[in-house]
């Protein structure tokens, strides 16, 4: 991690849940505040652990130890495997399209499904989280293949994710979110 993040440790939610008492887990999850993404707060508190148990996704927590040895969640992201349906409405740049291994309108892909940083997190921390998520995808690519990572985002985040290396390929099926990909 970058020099600004040396006091943070990246841990999988499943591992944290096994190590601490269940009575301590929910307060830890509820301590995460992200006023820009209240849906992410809800996901972390009410959905993430169920997704872990059912092998739907993996949630990674950036934990910061305070002086009292109490961990606080500085941010988190969720990763999964999810096929990407490629339709006529997609406008994939040629260089990316050739690398996606599209077969009968489907591209295998990793999904960066949640990404949220806590209120007050330093500028640039979101990029650090994306870098760590792409590192996980890269390790998976070495073990099992698949070179496409994707995410869906709102219009106001489109330029941010472009600046992080993702390419816009079109709107999702309901036309609300932007689908973006990066080759790992």
Write a structural description.
With about 180 residues, the protein is of the alpha+beta class. The strands form two sheets. It has a seven-stranded mixed sheet, sandwiched between helices. It has a two-stranded antiparallel ribbon with strand order 4-5. The chain is about 35% helix and about 30% strand. Strand 6, helix 6 (about 125-145) and strand 7 (about 150-155) form a beta-alpha-beta unit. The model has no long low-confidence stretch (mean pLDDT about 90). The protein has a single domain (about 5-184), classed as Gcn5-related N-acetyltransferase (GNAT) (Aminopeptidase, 3-Layer(aba) Sandwich).
Task: Give the ordered list of helices and strands.
Answer: EHHHHEEEHEEHEHEE
Straight-line distance between termini: 19 Å
By DSSP, the count of extended strands is 9
Put simply, the count of helices is 7
> What percent of the residues sit in helical stretches (DSSP H or I)?
25-40%
CATH superfamily heading = Gcn5-related N-acetyltransferase (GNAT)
Tell me, what's the shape? globular
| CATH topology name | Aminopeptidase
Query: How many domain modules?
Result: 1
Which residues form runs of ≥5 with pLDDT under 50? none
Strand pairing plus helix content: what structural class?
A: alpha+beta
Largest beta-sheet details: 7 strands, mixed
């Amino acid at each position: 991690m970058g020099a600004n993040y040396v006091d943070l440790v990246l841990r999988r939610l499943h591992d944290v849940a096994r190590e601490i008492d269940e009575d301590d887990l929910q307060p830890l999850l509820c301590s995460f505040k992200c006023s820009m993404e209240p849906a992410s707060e809800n996901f972390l508190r009410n959905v993430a652990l169920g997704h872990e148990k059912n092998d739907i996704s993996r949630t990674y927590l950036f934990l910061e130890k305070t002086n009292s040895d109490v961990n606080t969640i500085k941010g988190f992201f969720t990763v999964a495997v999810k096929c990407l349906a490629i339709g006529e409405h997609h406008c994939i740049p040629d260089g990316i399209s050739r690398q996606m291994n599209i077969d009968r309108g489907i591209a295998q892909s990793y999904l960066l499904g949640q990404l949220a940083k806590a209120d007050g997190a330093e500028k640039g921390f979101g990029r650090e989280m994306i870098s760590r998520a792409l590192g996980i995808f890269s390790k998976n690519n070495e073990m099992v293949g698949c070179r496409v990572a994707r995410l869906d985002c709102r219009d106001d985040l489109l330029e941010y994710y472009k600046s992080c290396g993702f390419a816009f390929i079109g709107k999702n099926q309901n036309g609300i979110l932007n689908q973006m990909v990066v080759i790992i």
